[in-house]
Specification:
The protein has 253 residues and is α+β, with helices and mostly antiparallel strands. It has 3 domains: 2-74, Orthogonal Bundle (Arc Repressor Mutant, subunit A); 83-132 and 207-252, Alpha-Beta Plaits (2-Layer Sandwich); 133-205, YebC, transcriptional regulation domain (Alpha-Beta Plaits, 2-Layer Sandwich), CATH 3.30.70.980. Helix content is 46%, strand content 23%. It has a 4-stranded antiparallel beta sheet. Strand 5 and strand 6 (172-178) form a beta hairpin. Helix 2 packs parallel to helix 4. The radius of gyration is 18 Å and the shape is globular.
């Protein structure tokens, strides 16, 4: 995912997400609750629920939290009724923003997101204004340092497991699949002893916009504040940042 992926990987390396673990668990709980409400509480028959539960376990979310979220979704215990929706818009330099939301108050969320975008050099757009720039795909991220393998060997294993594209960024390898095949590819690679930094269905940009240093800093600041918002479940963009600029920014973090 070009610059977006590079930035996510840098944050992973620096452990910045650990400071947001409580917020991350809250977002995962919402996702589990909504998936259970819409498709039932049995992960064997609800593929979306199964995927989100695996994502929660990857983040070491306690099983008790997962079970409570499922029960809220199935109505066994009371809870807030969240609605899911998508916002689309633009950031600094005209980069595309595709935001997956969950909220119990859509009007409040719209006002807050519009304010954040305006404050940090972006704006909301009409439905469909940027969705066409992205493709929904499976994305598995592997830290090559943890595999004991060289890049060529891992890439060959990924292709044999059913992946259709591999992009390396430093020591992190992004393995892309068809969305419907992501779980199968993951299981195949896990069978070979591969562990993942993350595994998810993501919106991958088909083309990217390269940013200069000033626009890159503004864009990454906007990404941070959006990702930190309680109602933003995922935010995707199509920016690309040259390695030398990304490294310079990373050293400032």
């Amino acid at each position: 995912m070009a610059g977006h992926s590079k930035w996510a990987n840098i944050k992973h390396k620096k452990g910045r997400e650990d400071a947001r673990r409580g917020k991350l668990f809250s977002k995962l709980s919402r996702m589990i609750t909504v998936a259970a409400r819409e498709g039932g509480g049995d992960p064997d028959t609800n593929s979306e629920l199964r995927l989100v539960i695996q994502k929660a376990k990857d983040q070491n979310m306690p099983n008790d939290n997962i079970e409570r979220a499922i029960k809220r979704g199935t109505g066994e215990i009371s809870g807030v009724n969240y609605e899911r929706f998508v916002y689309e818009g633009y950031g600094p330099g005209g980069v595309a923003l595709y935001m997956e939301m969950m909220s119990d108050n859509r009007n409040r969320t719209a006002s807050e997101i519009r304010h954040l975008l305006s404050k940090y050099g972006g704006n909301l757009g009409e439905t469909g204004c940027v969705a066409w720039m992205f493709q929904r795909r499976g994305q598995l991220v592997v830290d090559l340092d943890n595999t004991g393998l060289d890049e060529d060997t891992l890439m060959l294993m990924a292709i044999e497991a059913g992946a259709d594209d591999i992009v390396t960024e430093g020591n992190l390898v992004n393995i892309y699949t068809e969305a419907a095949n992501m779980e199968e590819v993951r299981k195949n690679l896990e069978g070979e002893g591969i562990e993942f930094v993350s595994a998810d269905i993501a919106m991958i940009p088909e083309n990217t916009i390269e940013l200069d240093a000033d626009t890159a800093r503004k864009t990454l600041k906007l990404m941070d504040v959006l990702e930190d918002h309680d109602d933003v479940q995922e935010v995707y963009s199509n920016f690309d940042i040259p390695d030398e600029i990304m490294q310079e920014i990373a050293e400032e973090v």
